[in-house]
Design a protein that fits this description.
This protein is mostly helical. Helices cover about 75% and strands about 5% of the residues. The protein has 11 helices and 3 strands, in the order βαααβαααβααααα. A 3-stranded mixed beta sheet has the order 2-1-3. The N and C termini lie far apart (about 65 Å).
Amino acid sequence: MGNSTQFSYFILSAYFDSGNFKYLIFLTFTVLYTLIVCSNILLIVVICMNRSLHEPMYLFLCSLFVNELFGSSSLFPFLMVQILSDIHIVSASLCFLQIFCLHCYGGVEFFNLAVMSYDRYLAICYPLQYNTRMTSNKTAVFIGLTWISSLFLCVIMISLSSTLQLCGNIINKVYCDNYSATKLACSDITANNIYGIIIVCLSVFGPLMLILFSYIKIFKICFSGSGQTRKKAVSTCTPHLASLLNFSVGVFFEILQSRFNMTSLPIVLRIILSLYFLTCQPLINPVLYGLNLTKIRILCKNLLFTVM
């Protein structure tokens, strides 16, 4: 074990001197964050205010949009402060809070997408029994489990990481993440590594297996069913698959950067790749579902024209 201590702050070393361009970067992130907040709140309000949308699919979407607000609010205000700052230091408590929030966001996103795929499987494969199989109580239970399980997994992760004795406090990123903080430890991190494998299996591979099962069943029905069944599947599953693919690619980029030496890539590209799943997903989801789902699109138009 090297010289260890309990640091009260971390240094984020991925920031670089961008001169006056920092104001343009700040403005860009401000616009992005404003768009994310406005679009997601719009869809949440539309779903909550219209009883015709109080169906499982739309309630799961509402949970998804709330999570986009949660994830983006855990990152964007922090980034905007750091962009304008000359010294990129963050307190240890705030750093671990951000780690907790961002990992919760990722877990909820995968769990939510998995539940939505299961809901589509029931709606397409068992249309006559759908209302008895996916009741309002079951919908509430699924949404509750999606959030509670992610929070519980992240509480354990943070309790393991925050108690480690560290040999350094420099994180080579523009935000805090668990793997980067754990790499600084001097003490034994076997428990952290084992739990890391467990949390990946439960919050990533578990949901992906459920999604794979659901879509195998859906594709079987589509190939053997009527044209109306295929049309229904395409209209409701296309935005879900696009959202899943976008988020999975972003998470893959982040895992790739964390686990392998990517210093050969330009620093700007590395920053963009690390921010991809945290910035694009909250912006893309409202567009995907708002434009592709007819009922939401019509109600959004009506609400906007009424306000104007």
